[in-house]
Amino acid sequence: MKQGIHPEYHATKIVCTSCNTEIEVGSTAEGLRVDTCSNCHPFYTGKQRFANAAGRIDKFNKKYGMK
User: Fold this and answer.
1) CA nearest 26: which of 40, 4, 11?
2) What would the pLDDT profile of 4-20 be if each residue is shown by its tens digit?
C-alpha cells in the first residue's frame, strides 16, 4: 500500500433517528445518522402492513379485466 493516500479508519457510532439505537462500527466517516435501522424497520420486525398493496392489486385487476 502507498503511504499517505488512504483515509483514516476509526470506530464510529451510527445513530438511528427513529428509535435512537446506537451501533458501533468501523468507518472513515464520523457520527453517522440513519432514518431506520434493522431494529425498527418493518421488514425485520415483522410488522408490515399490506393494506395498501391489496387495494392496488384489485385496482389493477379491475382495470385490465383479469380475474
Assistant:
1) 11
2) 899 999 999 999 988 88
Q: How far apart are CA 41 and CA 61, in angstroms?
A: 30
Burial of 21 (0-12, 13-18, 19+ CB in 10 A): middle
Rounded to an integer, what distance in angstroms lies between the CA atom of residue 7 and that of residue 36?
A: 27
Region of residue 10 (left: phi > 0; alpha: psi -120 to 50; beta: else) = beta
* Torsion region of 32: left, alpha or beta (phi above 0 gives left; psi -120 to 50 gives alpha): beta
Tally Cβ neighbours within 10 Å of residue 39. 13
Can you give the pTM of this predicted structure?
0.55
CATH number of 10-64: 4.10.80
- For the chain, the distance separating the N- and C-terminal CA atoms, rounded to the nearest angstrom, is 63
